[in-house]
Write a structure and sequence with these properties.
Largest interface: A-C, 44 and 43 residues
Oligomer: heterotrimer
Order of helices and strands of chain A: HHHHHEEHHHHHHH
Strand content of chain A: under 5%
Number of strands of chain C: 2
Number of helices of chain C: 13
Number of strands of chain A: 2
Strand order of the largest sheet of chain C: 1-2
Distance between the termini of chain A: 45 Å
Number of domains of chain C: 1
Radius of gyration of chain A: 20 Å
Chains: A mainly alpha (about 300), B alpha/beta (about 400), C mainly alpha (about 325)
Helix content of chain A: over 70%
Largest sheet of chain C: 2 strands, antiparallel
Shape of chain A: globular
CATH topology of chain C: ABC transporter involved in vitamin B12 uptake, BtuC
Shape of chain C: globular
CATH class of chain C: Mainly Alpha
Structural class of chain C: mainly alpha
Strand content of chain C: under 5%
Amino acid sequence: MDWSLLITQLLNGLQLGLLLFLLASGLTLIFGIMDFINLSHGSFYMIGAYFCGTVVAITGSFFIGVVFGLVGIFIVGAAVEWFIARRLYRSDHLDHVLVTFGLILIFDTLVHLLWGAQGMAIPLPDMLNGQIRIGELVLPTYRMLIIGCGLGVAALLYVLVVRTRLGMLIRAGASNRTMVEALGININRLFLVVFALGAAMAGFAGMLIAPITEASIGMGNDIIIVAFVVVIVGGIGSVKGAFYAALILGMMDTLSRSYLDVVLGWFMPVTYAETAAPALSAMLIYILMAAVLAFRPQGLFPPAGAK
Amino acid sequence: MLRKTMVSALIAGAVATSGVAQADSVKIGFVTTLTTPAAVIGEDMKNSVELALEHIGNKMGPLDVELIFEDDGFKPDIGKTKTDKLVKQDDVDFVTGFIWSHVLLASAKSVLDADKFLISANAGPSQIAGKRCHPNFFSSSWQNDQTPMAMGEHLNQTGVKSLYVMAPNYAAGKDMVRGVESTFKGKVLGKDMTKWGADAQLDFSAELAKAKSSGADALFVFYPGKAGGAFIKQYQQAGLQGVMDLYTVFTVDSIALPKLQAGGLSGVLGSKNTQQWSPDILNAANQRFVSEYLARHGKYPSFYGAQSYDAIMLIKSAVEKVNGDLSDKDAVRAALKQADFDSVRGKYSYGNNHMPIQNFYLREVVEDGEGRWTTKIVSTVLTNHQDPYAKDCKM
Amino acid sequence: MKAWLPQTWSGRIYALLLLSLALAPFVLDWMKQPFYLDLLTRALIFAIAVISLNLILGYGGMVSLGHAAYIGIGAYCVGIPSYYDYYNGWLHLALALGVGGGFALITGAISLRTKGVYFIMITMAFSQMAFFLFVSMEEYGADDGLVIYSRSEFPQWISLDSAFGLYYWIFAVLLLALFFIHRLVHAHFGRVIVGSKFNEERMMALGFNTYRYRLACYVLSAMLCSVAGMLLGNFAGFISPDMMSWARSGELIFMVIIGGVGTLFGPLIGTMVFVLLEEILSAITVYWHLIFGIMLVALVLYGKGGIHGWLSLLDRGGGGRG
């Protein structure tokens, strides 16, 4: 067993899991509180990356890019809530799917019009392009930064949800929406804030990944499906559930990408194992979701008091 | 309303078709990727084709050129539908373009069954070079295996003993891996085939960690288009530079280099790759192509562009030889087979399977006089090389 | 007015649509537009798939985001036997019905234990599993897809080889499907399905095992969709796992909604509009997704009931909007 490889892979899994968490936490809140299915949540991930990249191109500072990007994506999220989502909270889930799919097409094409098709590379400060060495381990500094940021946001979100009045309303909304309305809370404002906050977290995830993979059109459309799996597995409306489920999925994906071909190689010819392994590792997360839905449809960690 | 729209669209189509049905024009369909992030390749091809048309004054012999671009959306089934449209609706004489091997494999039948000419300006899947070769198919690029075969030879010459291999999991990726394995004499310690297509995998953290722990001397990769830039960046961030040398095919090109330069990834300077063409090849056609492309678009053309430029010139040479009589398919075929034109890569010839027999060069990434990153030929690795599938082609 | 003529405006429009579809090959041939015949053939195939989806989505209230899996299964049931040079169409058909129905029986039995959004997600999960299963099959082209070099053969029966022949056989299957759905929803079976969509407890109280009815409905729908897949494999001569991705399933749902959920002709007209719009818009500009997206948003915000809903307004004498 190559321990340094295993540790590196666990950290890679953690990094992927935290990115998924940033996406899924907003998604699960919007889903849980407003009962709104937002397929276009992945567009915030993409737009965040483009905003950040544009500012970085002008100012040359990754940090300033992130700050402006966050403000920008918060506004975009609020606008989507204000003009579109708000009008649909009481309609059918089918309508949500249709409208937000339309939004994906609109956002993707707008990005194509504004920034072109070629994608956008986001340069990092030299400091972040290096590596951290701990004994035998060589870890990319930037990936460690992603892990740090992800854990930081998770902690902030925990404080927000558990310790503040806004958090109390969010928790109440996720378990029993009518109750919050009955209490005379300005529900519109709560929804607006939750939606924009969710968008900002998704945008932040996009900004974090873009320096590695580049910002590109449609970058959010595949990861969003995995984020939905996280939401379902964790339990709709549960931030804690999203956190654990994201880490489970991130680890599962990375570890199966690293070891599944070896394991399959014991049972079948190596050439077949090499092609089958990536597909099977992609299939695993759906098997997990189907199993959860079949045996525990409320998810692994449903919000307290939810039906 | 709907009927009306459809009917008027039909009438417009009918008028357009009848207006050009006379023999005074040659119709060429060009299938490439104009949406999705891979559109960056499609645009390079389109720019080069437009430059080629300008250079020939939009004329081929006695005929005017009518060119129609279609977008394959990076998907085989869309590529096939668009090809069907070019063949049936637009009734083109030649279909060319095709970045992706899987799109070409899906679309080839539509063109060839209709007895039109198919000229691949990039993709060179092994199937169409071997068992499924066809008299009406020609390539203005290469067969997929050839470029990595050249790389394998170079690895032997440099004394690399062990290799880790990574490529996307699709037709061309498989050919590339087979190509390098066929000539490389050392040991391949590990291999990863990653998800490709519109939703391609772009985070290679797990694979890079595996590559490193394999302890191989060098890393061989094939990541065309956008994925190439992302890969190089992660390779460098993972601290593999200087630990495990990187050898690439179709990855470090004029599409990736400007972005790598913008990202300040200077580690790529000095890295080696193999190719049948380079911007610095000395011949009149290439110098004109490269300098005018540079002047117009502010960046170097890529090999995709060079091959597209060649595809147009190849068609032109054939149309001129038959003096515009495209109805004589045998004559057109014979004319194409001669490859009698000034290719930007220099002279090449066609084998029995209509794949080029040509040289492959080792290229190094350097900075040009004006500080732009580009590639420069170091040496010739393979001379007049023919692909290994030609023997399977009964033609 | 003769009794067999449709009595409503929407009815007349649908009759006209069927009539134009029946005559279309001749008109297109006369206009020398073979490509538009292809487009129409493709639209008819998708219409069959969308009609099958509407059976569970529209009448049964089961929103499946995994129906494209059955198109893929049906098409691979042509592609894989052809790869081994088995071109017998009856074999292809039997495989499509058997494999499609079997997959639906197993996954449906599990999925139907869930409701609402969970059902959407679990059907998506199963279709993604099927998608990745085909992606992993190196022998059959994996991600690159499989070229089908020859069409299904039905000796002494049907020839699918000409564009005309293929079109009319597909048109016949479409008419059969419409007739089948019409009879089904008006039969006892259909009443239970529609009834349990609106009030499942009541249907159960009446002594119906609604789970079994729904499962049967789900399997029937999947089998019809597999037939559409088999036709698509024949028509396109190419099949790739991409045809079964979740985004394709989403498109099928849109076609249902555009036309009108839970109506007989809605899926047909929705598919026609979707396919033709896609073709026309994409011919105009590469940015056509923008227009398409705006249309989708506007459809939900302002256009309740889909095209069938608008046509029904004509029947009520025009007047205000719904």
